[in-house]
Design goal:
Strands 1-2 form a two-stranded parallel sheet. The N and C termini lie far apart (about 40 Å). Helix content is about 45%, strand content about 15%.
Length: about 100
């Protein structure tokens, strides 16, 4: 995905882009930005660390800038409800059997 983003930026003549692959890079990044975009990244990390990264990202945003951030919401359902949901979504016809 990063290689594709780099190709797209190059083809568009956009040069003021920072592609980060770790939160270490974020903490060392200087300056502020008009656009911050994160897609299918934050769901792979623990909640507390994600909250810290979110604060860092927002702190890098210029006034009037835009942050497009993708989040997966925390799911605190009991295990039997998670199983119920998984069965309904995964097993054919189970949606009609389980109410």
């Amino acid at each position: 995905m990063l290689a594709e983003a780099e190709r797209n930026a190059e083809q568009s003549g956009v040069t003021n882009i920072e592609l980060l692959t770790s939160d270490d890079e974020l903490s060392q990044l200087k300056g502020r930005f008009d656009l911050i975009h994160s897609f299918i990244v934050l769901q792979h990390i623990p909640k507390a660390r994600g909250e810290q990264l979110l604060r860092q990202l927002i702190g890098k945003l210029n006034p009037g800038g835009v942050a497009a951030l993708h989040f997966t919401y925390f799911n605190d359902l009991p295990k039997y409800m998670k199983l119920h949901r998984w069965l309904r979504e995964t097993v054919p016809f189970m949606h009609y059997i389980l109410i």
